[in-house]
Amino acid sequence: MAFGSFREFLNQLEAAGELKRIALPVATELEMTELADREMKKPGGGKALLFEEPVVNRKPSPFPVAINTLGSWKRLALSLGAESVEAVAAELGSLMKAKPPVSVRDALKLLGTALELRHARPRRVSDGPCKEVIHRFEAPPPRTEPWPPAPPLGEPGAPVPSPTLLELPVLRCWPLDAGRFITLPCVVTRDPDTGERNVGMYRMQIYDDRTTGMHWQLQKVGARHARRHLELGTRMPVAVFLGGDPVYPFAATAPLPDGLDEFLLAGYLRRKSVELVQCETNDLEVPANADFVIEGYVDPREPLREEGPFGDHTGFYTLPEPYPVFHVTAITHRKEAVYPATIVGHPPMEDFYLGSAAVKLFLPVFKMNFPEIVDIALPAEGVFHNLVFVSIRKTYPMQAYKIMHGLWGMGQMMFTKYLVVVDDDVDVHNTSEVLFRLCANTDPQRDSLFTKGPADVLDHATSEIAIGGKLGLDATRKLPGEGFKRPWPSLIRMDPAVKAKMDRLFNL
Ligand SMILES: Cc1cc2nc3c(=O)[nH]c(=O)nc-3n(C[C@H](O)[C@H](O)[C@H](O)COP(=O)(O)O)c2cc1C
Fold it and tell me: 255 CB less than 6 Å from ligand 1?
């Protein structure tokens, strides 16, 4: 189902009993986080919250803030207009089965073809509600001097038309955060060589009324585009949008292969092409129904600027690191815009549902390359990549190791720190069950594989940033061909007939 606006989605959440309105004034600094965190920690992800009276820097904001709108299986399904995320995944899987791929490359190409089957390519329109209000800002000359340390909450520069970044109800999430951070920005860039578009989600620290940080980590597509602009010596147009159809943030965070347009995935999921309008001050396009658009550029020739600390997905603060500066050249918005936000921190948070939904959706792609894979889970405690459970139908010796190597080589699965492979009769979404098999079925020395590779830059435990060790654990039943000479015992299970009889006779 296609939502014409973010408000339309919020109305639907409210009608489904999935949204709580908060009418009292609440500060965007820390107070919203406290309420959102309590909600996100409730069983099943709590409700979405709509703050009707946000207070920014002690002043009321004209824009309400919506948070945790995708933080449960029910709300995710509602955002997709589907019965469940599984139903969407099954449909995509069956579209892809039309022509089995012969390689990983082939499977990814097939994903693109499957998405196009719904004729959901984005299309250009001349105007849209995201431009109901337009403010342009002058681009300053490129900076050559190093940047000064960021002021704690961003201090106003010379007077400029409102709203600037400082009036937007941007959250300062945690006490030791370096300032306020846009936490759900969909960031549009283009490959300067091929013109291919990318939409990624990279947080943005507000430095002042016209600049922010751009936290694209080094392995992400936005960072690759920036490196190419640096080589070419060119300024990089960047457009950031917030709100609109709720599938946009999902598409922006989904680990799509580089080169596959996130707007194609969004169009497929909403069953309708995404309508795009050209930005006012650069040649990028953004969804016409977005709530806010922040246009600008990154000049890769400029010095980087310290970004962070920021209370992150990992549950810890990520330390300050140098990142590019984003200069704002225009802010456009709907008259009745709602500002979407999320918080990250000690799991589980809203991002657990976004990450897990992406795994569910792309399970068919994994299965095409590795037909023995039954299911994959990223438990909340592992915060995406730290811990991955995979169940396989094992038919030959060392198959678990083939899966470990294969997954470590697939896109953002490269960040996986601990990878546990179990047999097909284990429910990987039941962490207790996986740990039981892990402890029972492994000889630690024999069944572990240490290797190394790229690491998530947010991982504070690696000795060097972005590189680190990985541990694969084979918790599957061992085969004689694997050098296991003893008989493998049977798992204790009750006779089904006895179970049925006891069910009939006793209410125990
Ligand atoms: C709430 C949220 C915030 C995120 N923030 C960042 C970030 O600041 N930097 C980053 O590189 N990735 C961040 N990610 C992960 C990326 O959005 C994700 O890896 C995405 O697939 C990147 O897209 P790309 O491969 O097109 O670059 C975030 C994800 C979520 C759910």
Answer: yes
List the catalytic residue out of 299, 312, 447, 474. Answer: 312
pLDDT, position 277: 98
Global pTM reads 0.94
What residue ranges in 171-316 does DSSP mark as E strands?
181-182, 186-190, 197-201, 204-205, 211-213, 236-242, 275-278, 285-287, 292-298, 305-307, 310-311
Nearest CA to ligand 1 atom 9: 202
Q: What is the pLDDT of residues 11-45, one digit of tens each?
A: 999 999 999 999 999 999 999 999 999 999 999 99
User: Closest residue (by CA) to atom 12 of ligand 1?
Assistant: 202
Which residue carries 């580089």 as its tokens? 258
Q: Which fold has domain 122-341?
A: Pnp Oxidase; Chain A (2.30.110)
Q: Give me the architecture of the 370-482 domain, per CATH.
A: 3-Layer(aba) Sandwich (3.40)
Ligand 1 mutation target, pool 220, 350, 384, most atoms within 8 A of CB: 220
Structure confidence by residue, pLDDT tens digits, 227-271: 999 999 999 999 999 999 999 999 999 999 898 999 999 999 999
Enumerate the β-bridge partners of residue 243. none
Residue with CA at minimum distance from ligand 1 atom 20 = 253
At which residue do the structure tokens 């009418």 appear?
A: 23
What mean pLDDT comes out for the span 178-201?
97
Closest CA to 285 of 194, 396, 173, 197: 197
d(C-alpha 290, C-alpha 295), whole Å: 13
Most distant CA atoms of the chain, gap in Å = 83
Give the contacts of 490 (CB within 8 A, at least 6 positions apart). Answer: none
The finding on whether 137 has its CB within 6 A of some atom of ligand 1 is no
d(CA 74, CA 83): 9
Residue 294 pLDDT grade (very low, low, confident, very high; cuts 50, 70, 90): very high
Atom of ligand 1 nearest to the CA of 201: 17
Cβ of 49 closer than 6 Å to ligand 1, yes or no, is no
Q: What average pLDDT does this structure show over 386-396?
A: 98
What are the residue boundaries of the structural domains of the chain, listed by start?
122-341, 370-482
Report whether pLDDT(153) > 80: no
**Do the domains spanning 122-341 and 370-482 agree at the CATH topology level?**
no
Q: Residue 104 belongs to what H/E stretch?
A: helix 104-116
Q: Is the CB of 342 under 6 A from ligand 1?
A: yes
Confidence at residue 154, expressed as pLDDT on a 0 to 100 scale: 46
Q: How many residues does the chain have?
A: 508
* Residue 312 annotated among the catalytic residues of the structure: yes
CB 474 within 8 A of CB 421: yes
How much is the pLDDT for 378?
96
Which of 191, 199, 253 is the pocket-test mutation for ligand 1 (most atoms within 8 Å of CB)? Answer: 253
The answer to whether the CB of 458 is under 6 A from ligand 1 is no
| Residues 228 and 191: beta-carbon distance below 8 Å | yes
Mean pLDDT computed over 438-451:
98
310 CB under 6 A from ligand 1?
no
